[in-house]
Amino acid sequence: MANMRIRAIALSVGLLGALGWAGCGSNPTRIFLTWELTQNGTSVTCASGETVEIVAAGVQITGIPCTAMSFTTNSVPSGTYAIQVSLVGADGTTESTTSIGPVAIASGATNDIGHVIFELSGTGSASFTWSLEMNNASVQCAPGEQVVFDFGTVNAITVPCADLATTIDGLAEGSYDLVVSLVMSSNPGQAESQTGDIPVTIAAGQTTVVPPIVFTL
Predict the structure, then answer these.
(1) Cα separations (Å) of 89 from 42, 152, 162?
(2) Cβ distance 124 to 171 under 8 Å?
(3) CB count in 10 Å sphere of residue 203
(4) Coil, strand or helix: which one is 30?
(5) Within its chain, how far is the Cα of 120 from the centroid?
(6) DSSP letter string, 120-149
(7) Which are the contacts of 210, defined by CB distance < 8 A and separation ≥ 6?
(8) In which element (H, E) is residue 81 found?
(9) Helices (H) and strands (E) in the chain, counts
(10) Interacting residues of 8 by C-beta distance below 8 A, sequence separation 6+
């Protein structure tokens, strides 16, 4: 009976080892990597609040400061599998993702999976002008009126109506369905006039000139 109990314990330990879990006194199985950020082929620094996320065999590691530029995980399963590494913005948006492998992760070792390059989208600008009409006649902006630009995927941008023109910089390249609203600062949730969807395409390093906007009151 004693021999059977010893044999059962040995089988249990062997099964845990096969699953990639280290026993007491064993070295943990870890992953090590480094990274950098590039934009249009040029190295750039991490933006405020950016973090790195690692997903390895179902283990998710989040909140790694981007500025660390390298990281060693705690214990992960051994085996051969793909590892996903993502750059996440301060607002929770995934800005760049890289899949590595499948990679053979050795048990009881710190496995260097290499250097990750996060390629960021370029940014461009959009230029706008607007006017107001009432009963087919041009009118001026009232005190406190504002123009709100809602690109759908970024925070809405608000400028004084009286400016009658603006250029918005730092827009990620891509296509947007833009909605522009005229509101009073005292009641920003109620639009006095609003456009339909305006298709806007942003190209890196360029300024897109949007046709003039006319708010009808």
Answers:
(1) 19, 17, 33
(2) yes
(3) 14
(4) strand
(5) 10
(6) EPPEEEEEEEEEEEETTEEEPPPTTEEEEE
(7) 126, 127, 128, 178, 198, 200
(8) strand 79-88
(9) 1, 18
(10) none
Give the contacts of 100 (CB within 8 A, at least 6 positions apart).
82, 83, 84, 85, 113, 114, 116
Tokens linked to 17: 């080892």
pLDDT in tens, the chain (217 residues): 434 333 333 333 333 333 344 444 579 999 999 999 987 778 889 988 899 999 999 899 999 999 999 999 999 999 999 999 999 888 787 888 899 999 999 999 999 999 999 988 777 889 999 999 999 999 999 999 999 999 987 678 999 999 999 999 878 778 899 999 999 988 888 999 999 999 999 887 789 999 999 999 9
Residue type, 118: F
Q: Looking only at Cα atoms, what is the longest distance across the chain?
A: 101
pTM of the model: 0.52
Q: Report all structural domains of the chain as residue ranges with CATH numbers, in order of start.
A: 26-120 (2.60.40.1120), 123-216 (2.60.40.1120)
**Distance between CA atoms of residues 78 and 81, nearest Å:** 9
Q: What is the per-residue DSSP string for 52-80?
A: EEEEETTEEEEEEEGGG-EEE-S----EE
pLDDT at 172: 79
